[in-house]
């Protein structure tokens, strides 16, 4: 059984930070986590759980420094525009060897190290929203000061809420266009398939049930079988059958090109955001 994770702080435990907190709680891997939020109401919603200390800036303006000073891993979950100010606030209290982990999209490792110092290990992370149910895909990019042991520790942290892929920083934005934005693509496909069902006379409830459960079931079968998705598609697609006719229409619409164009557009926007546009 792996050793417990060291003390962790989540500064700005909003939707993503909160999802990671719940993953840690479910796993029992972290004996102590300190979380901070802006309001007392948000802090109260996360308090009362074993091993969790929930602080609010409303009640204690020094909550972020208190949490960071007492932790071995500090997750920065505030909005990207707020990151530099937060880093300047906590940098003086970080202990040697403390690992700083970014949850903020578009904020580079260089920005982090320029404020916290070259000797503090920094790792960028890019989780996605299925972290809430323990099914995240999280990308990790390590800064120069992060050792292999540091990365392994942070990997274990994120594996409490899904799977982890390690990539160089120049690929983290590209990863975000696939796994980060990817849930939205799936939801759009479900919306459109639901609309197609409505167009064939099904009630709203039945149309939604068919479309949603088909995606959920197909994903579950893919996960359970370990088969390549192309092979599973072939098994559904009987020669000269109805599915083959439908797949031909979808392939004729060049979905592969559409997805390439969509993810390219997302990547271009990520670069704009990183440049402050």
UniProtKB/TrEMBL annotation:
Pfam families membership: F420_oxidored, P5CR_dimer
Domain Pyrroline-5-carboxylate reductase dimerisation intervals: 169-273
Which of this chain's residues are annotated to bind NADP(+)?
11-16
* Catalytic activity annotation: L-proline + NAD(+) = (S)-1-pyrroline-5-carboxylate + NADH + 2 H(+); L-proline + NADP(+) = (S)-1-pyrroline-5-carboxylate + NADPH + 2 H(+)
| Subcellular localization(s) per the UniProt record | Cytoplasm
Gene Ontology terms: cellular component: cytoplasm
Enzyme class of the recorded protein, top EC level: oxidoreductase
Q: Listed GO molecular functions?
A: pyrroline-5-carboxylate reductase activity
For this protein, the record's PANTHER family field holds:
PYRROLINE-5-CARBOXYLATE REDUCTASE, PYRROLINE-5-CARBOXYLATE REDUCTASE 3
What family is it from?
Belongs to the pyrroline-5-carboxylate reductase family.
Provide the protein name: Pyrroline-5-carboxylate reductase
| Originating species | Microbacterium dextranolyticum
């Amino acid at each position: 059984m792996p050793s417990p994770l060291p003390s962790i702080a989540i500064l700005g435990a909003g939707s993503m930070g909160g999802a990671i907190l719940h993953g840690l709680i479910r796993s029992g891997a972290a004996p102590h986590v300190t979380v901070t939020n802006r309001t007392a109401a948000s802090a109260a919603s996360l308090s009362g759980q074993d091993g969790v200390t929930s602080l609010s800036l409303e009640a204690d303006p020094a909550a972020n420094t208190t949490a960071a000073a007492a932790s071995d891993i500090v997750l920065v979950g505030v909005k990207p525009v707020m990151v530099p100010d937060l880093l300047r606030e906590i940098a003086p209290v970080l202990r040697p060897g403390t690992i700083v982990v970014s949850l903020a999209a578009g904020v580079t490792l260089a920005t982090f190290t320029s404020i916290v110092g070259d000797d503090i290990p920094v790792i960028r992370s890019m989780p996605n929203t299925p972290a809430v149910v323990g099914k995240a895909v999280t990308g990790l990019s390590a800064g120069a000061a992060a050792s292999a042991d540091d990365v392994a520790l942070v990997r274990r942290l994120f594996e409490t809420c899904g799977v982890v892929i390690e990539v160089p920083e120049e690929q983290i934005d590209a990863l975000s266009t696939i796994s980060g934005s990817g849930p939205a693509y799936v939801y759009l496909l479900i919306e459109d398939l639901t609309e197609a069902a409505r167009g064939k006379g099904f009630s709203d409830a039945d149309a939604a049930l068919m479309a949603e459960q088909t995606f959920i079931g197909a994903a579950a079968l893919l996960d359970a079988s370990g088969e390549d998705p192309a092979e599973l598609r072939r098994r559904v697609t009987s020669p000269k059958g109805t599915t083959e006719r439908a797949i031909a229409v979808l392939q004729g619409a060049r979905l592969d090109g559409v997805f390439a164009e969509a993810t390219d557009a997302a990547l271009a926007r990520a670069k704009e955001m990183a440049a402050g546009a």
